[in-house]
Structure formats: C-alpha cells, structure tokens
Design a protein that fits this description.
There is one protein chain. The protein is α+β, with helices and mostly antiparallel strands. The chain folds into 4 domains: 64 residues, no CATH class; 73 residues, GMP Synthetase, Chain A, domain 3, CATH 3.30.300; 56 residues, no CATH class; 52 residues, SH3 type barrels, CATH 2.30.30. The protein is built from 10 helices and 13 strands. The strands form 3 sheets. The protein has a 5-stranded antiparallel β-sheet, with helices on one face. Helix 3 links the parallel strand 7 and strand 8. The longest helix has 16 residues. It is elongated.
Length: 346
C-alpha cells in the first residue's frame, strides 16, 4: 500500500512539514491532527494532501498519531492565553540579569502545556550565554519543559507583523510567505532598483523579500535585449543603447542622426545588433578561402576587398605583334576556303 503523505503547518502562516498520514487515511485539508515532531507531540493543521509523495528523507517520515479531538483544541486555546504572561516574565528576568542585546520576542506553549519555548533575538545574531535565564525560567514554570530558541530578524518581523515599508497594511512575511528565500544585492542591480539602503531594506533591517519576486523574469528578459552602450541598427538609423525596459521589451536608443540627442524607444523586434550586421557584411565581401589551389566550385569567386575579381586586376603581358598578325592571316584563309552555295530559289 502506498504511503499517504500530508502537509501540516503549526502556525497560521508557517512552513509546511510532511508527515506519514497512514493512520488517518480520509483526513481532509483544514482538519487538525496530532503529530510526532523532534520537539515532542504537537498539534497542527492539515494544509495539503499530496497525491504523489515527495522524495523520502534520509531519517524517514514522521507519523501522524491521530486526529485532534475537541478537548485538544480547547487545551491549545487555554495554553495560548498564558503565552503573553510568560513572555513578560521572561523579559523582566532578562532585564534583571542585564543581558545586553537580548530581545525576548514571544513565548510558545505546546498544545498540552508540556513544553514552553521562549523565542529571542540578539543584535548581529551573536551567541549569548543564557543558561542562567533558562534555569530561572524553569524554576518559574516548573510544569513544562523550558527551552530558549534563537530566531533571525526576518522571523521576528513575521511574528510582530505590522505595515510593510512599501505601504502594504500587512507585510508579505506575515501575510503569505511560508519560507524565506536567499536574497542578494545582485537582484536589485538586475532589476535596476536604486541601491539606497532605505529603498531596498525592509522593516527587519534585511533586503526586502519582494526583490526575489520578479528576479527570474528580469534575467530571462535581459538575455533577449542588448546591453547598455551597445551599437544597434534601428529603422531610423544607427545609434547607441542608453537604457532597456525588460518588462515592456523596449530599448531606448540615442540615434546618431538625431540632433535633439534624446533617446528614442524602440520595441525589441525593430532592433538589430550593429556588430552582427557588420560581421555579416565583412564576411560577404571577403574572398573565398575554401579552395587554395584555385578552381572554386562553391559559386563564390575570389574577390578583392573592392568587390572586383582578382583575375581582372592581374597585369596581363604585352601581346606579340607577329603572333597577332599570323592569327589574322589564318582567319582570312579560313573564310576564303568556305564552300559557295547557289542562291535559294523563290
């Protein structure tokens, strides 16, 4: 029997993890299940039921134990109501210990209260010794198993939410992004975006996640367009490329014969590279180099750069007068020996 793989997420906009759902064959998207994770039992929501299972991981699939009961959902709600108070207690204790650069972002209880995780962030993502803080929190909350988990600045922005730097009411990370893609400054350069830090930096202090949205489309479009400062041929004459608009497939060209010296937009179909046309012209005017010994059979005689046959430009030797006179006499004798026929009758 084929293993049924389902996707489960543990937060509203969280990463989807795959589990073996053989124990709940008829589970539907939107239902809640109890699964076995690396941090113990947890309650999650079914986000997808995969028709074709993905490649099996090396450690194997973790299994779904059962469906979540109404009691499990009530337990989760009751423990979630205590998370804010636990976070305030941890922040106060961190301030007493004078832990510089440590920011307690959130506290998360397990669905049954067996685990309590404090999520924190540090300046420059440096490692900080928090053994004393963990020990004090374990004494403060003796029931659950306490752990401290460090998260990055993007995860902090996702948890806190708020308005984005672009003006959206809800940030992309808090609205639909389940995973963070690697982003580099090259993506901003490829799209022609200003490299001013305030223009490309998000509220988390990192490069904006939206830089990756159209990056592949820009790369594919630029491969079909000439680069800046390249010479091109347009229907209005030759010129130099000053700018390109990949999304509209348009090229701005500064024409040589334009007295205004103002770039003119042209669609990609009307642009031809000048260097390619020049190479074709030179190739058509070059002499045939396929037959070194003469007797060209490719339909292309040896030409000179001026376009005339090379043989016509060769210096011919002066004719011998005696030989010319002899050929003339032979021609007269031949014409005189022709047989005379009577005239035709009408």
């Amino acid at each position: 029997m084929q293993t049924q793989i389902i996707g489960v997420r543990f937060s509203k906009i969280g990463k989807i993890y795959h589990f073996d759902g053989s124990a709940v064959r008829d589970v539907q998207v939107g239902e809640h299940v109890i699964v076995d994770t690396s941090r113990g039992k947890n309650l999650g929501e079914v986000a997808a039921v995969l028709a074709q299972p993905p490649p099996r991981p090396d450690e194997g699939w973790r299994r779904v134990d059962r469906r979540a009961s109404p009691r499990d959902l009530l337990l989760k709600q009751s423990w979630q109501a205590k998370q804010t108070a636990a976070m305030i207690e941890c922040r106060a204790r961190a301030a007493e210990l004078r832990l510089q650069g440590v920011k307690i972002v959130a506290a998360e209880y397990n669905y049954d209260g067996s685990r309590l995780a404090f999520l924190f962030n540090t300046e420059n993502e440096e490692k900080v010794d928090l053994k004393s803080l963990k020990r004090d929190m374990q004494k403060k909350f003796p029931g659950p198993q306490v752990e401290l988990r460090q998260i990055g600045p993007r995860d902090v922005a996702k948890l806190l939410g708020g308005m984005g730097a672009c003006g959206l009411e809800t940030r992309c990370c808090s609205k639909f992004l389940t995973e963070f893609s690697p982003i580099s400054i090259k993506m901003a350069k490829e799209q022609g975006i200003s490299l001013t830090p305030t223009e490309i930096t998000g509220m988390c202090g990192r490069l904006r996640c939206c830089l990756v949205y159209e990056y592949e489309q820009y790369v594919a479009a630029r491969k079909e367009l000439p680069k800046r400062n390249k010479r091109v041929v347009t229907p209005r004459g030759e010129g130099k490329v000053t700018d390109v608009m990949p999304m509209s497939n348009t090229v701005f060209v500064l024409l040589d014969n334009d007295e205004r010296r103002f770039p003119v937009p042209f669609p990609r179909e009307d642009i031809q590279p000048w260097d390619e046309l020049e190479a074709l012209r030179r190739k058509s005017e070059a002499p045939c180099d396929r037959h070194e010994s003469g007797g060209c059979t490719c339909g292309r005689d040896r030409k000179t750069p001026g376009g005339t046959d090379a043989k016509s430009q060769e210096v011919q030797p002066e004719p011998n007068p005696a030989r010319v006179e002899k050929k003339k006499n032979e021609g007269r004798e031949t014409r005189g020996n022709h047989k005379q026929y009577p005239p035709r009758r009408k």
